[in-house]
Amino acid sequence: MQKIFLPSLSVKYLSVIPSVLLLLCLLENKAVAQSNEVGIGIGGTNYTGDVVQSFGMRHTRPGGFLLYRRNFTDYLSVRGNFMFGGLAGSDNPPFDALAQQRDTAFSTTVAELTAIVEYHFLDYKKNVNLLRWSPYFFIGAGVSYFGAPAPETPSHSRIQPVVPVGIGFKYILSPEFSLSAEAGIRKTFFDYIDNVSDSDSVLKNYEYGNRYNNDWYYFIGVSISYTFWTIPCPYLFSS
Q1: Which one of 139, 147, 159, 181 has the minimum C-beta count within 10 Å?
Q2: Residue 74 CB burial class (10 angstroms; 0-12, 13-18, ≥19)
Q3: Hey, what domains does the chain have and what are their CATH numbers?
């Protein structure tokens, strides 16, 4: 009878399968899949500067963003954020005599790419907790690209550094989905979002503003994110 060597070979290779499974499971547990989130958000953008001195909803324009979030702990997350929205302002109604004489308005867009650190104040992610929500604080850094304002004065770079700071509220809808609402301000380091800044005041053309008062813009919105989860390795729990 012809000998079949398959069983002996199978036993030989089957003996290393548990080790391979263990290695794969350990690698899987170290993977970041269960710590990753992607999401989308909508809301409104706003601005304050030389043309609009105080925050108000009248100049709010629609905006939205995409996010990727990495959860390092139950409290600390880092988020990559791409936001796009409109910015606008007008001297009508004027806030002082200078604004009345200047009588200008502008409309532009902003695209923002930032890295943001989120700190959650409550331990809301543990399954043993009944708490499913937490307020959070965020701060970050990035760059913004401003579209050409109308009317346009080509006297500045459209790419500028920006520092986002704000607060939010997060609620876990399910193990996969989370809902967030947040309000943030964007600190800029230039004065040309509204196309109005320092000018030759001797000419008295009223087309200038305060060069020591940099422009700010804001985003208020809601987002929904999806968390990627891995299946626990059964080999680790079989022994």
Answers
A1: 159
A2: middle
A3: 35-232 (2.40.160.20)
